[in-house]
Amino acid sequence: MRVFSLWQGDIEPYVQIIKDAGGLVFWTVGSPDDAARAKDMGVDFIVAQGREAGGHLVGSAPAMPLLPSIVDAARGVPVVAAGGIAEGRGLIAAMALGACGVWMGTRFVASKESANHRGYKERVVAARATDLVETELFDAGWQESPHQVIRNSTYSRWEEAGRPANGQRPGEGERISSFPDGKPLYRYDIAAAWDGMEGDWEASPLYAGAAVELIHDVKSVAEIVGEIEATAQAALERIADLRSRFVRRVAAA
Ligand SMILES: Cc1cc2nc3c(=O)[nH]c(=O)nc-3n(C[C@H](O)[C@H](O)[C@H](O)COP(=O)(O)O)c2cc1C
User: How far apart (Å, rounded) are the C-alpha atoms in residues 199 and 202?
Assistant: First the structure.
């Protein structure tokens, strides 16, 4: 099955083309208003992105209140939860809020298989939520699109310079690194640091969300999925235990 993930902009013209070719459409939305349009457009799965997500943001609110409001608006289209989820407790919480599954970004940056720079993965592991900033700073290639990143040298220099406007920012147009094919990476580019990049790779956007609070090591994808399973199972057992204690207390009353 071919799966297509769409988000920002007008997706409608693409949905029918994908459906005609036999593909499945996932659409990342950030509001119940968009979710309400999904069914008529023929979208197969809605991805509800909470504002705590890493990378570029469409979420209008954190996932906890946003997700159930999107589920309510989805008119039966299945909803996948995104934003702030890194293991099984988040999966069970999202399912309790009406999601059929989860969609994780930041957790998989810190995976062995990710093509991101080793130093970027280490920054994700070391970061706390207080190290994150929501900004529109890394805009070369995509302007006025808010994104969440770990504070880095480019962000700090820009802040120290008094947050100047685009075109007057420190080091504008400066080459900070190169892609493996030799293509230059400039300061303020939207591209994240790739494996093997040399130079000032740390100055590129280190996309990450609040899930950094739960990420303590770089693991293989198989280990991450295994951890999701184990922690989801433990969460379900905890809920069952709480429920049976509650039932016993009510019966004894
Ligand atoms: C490094 C990185 C790159 C991303 N690139 C894309 C992208 O190209 N397209 C997209 O739809 N979402 C992209 N996202 C957003 C994710 O699809 C997802 O909404 C988000 O990561 C979920 O929140 P989480 O990071 O807390 O797991 C990216 C996220 C990260 C962290």
Answer: 8
C-alpha span between 41 and 27 (Å, rounded) = 10
Q: Is 150 in the pocket of ligand 1 (CB under 6 A)?
A: no
Ligand 1: residue whose CA is nearest its atom 6 = 55
Q: Within 13 A of 86's CA, how many CA atoms are on the CB side?
A: 24
Tokens of 141: 């290639």
Distance 40 CA to ligand 1 centre (A): 25
What is the Å distance from ligand 1's center to 56 Cα?
A: 7
Split the chain (253 residues) into runs of 10 and give each run's mean pLDDT. 92 95 97 96 97 96 98 98 98 98 98 97 98 97 93 98 96 92 94 92 97 98 98 97 91 87
| Alpha carbons 99 and 35: distance in angstroms, whole number | 13
CA of 19 to the centre of ligand 1 (A): 23
116 in contact with ligand 1, CB cutoff 6 A? no
Domains detected in the chain: 3-104 (3.20.20.70), 114-214 (no CATH)
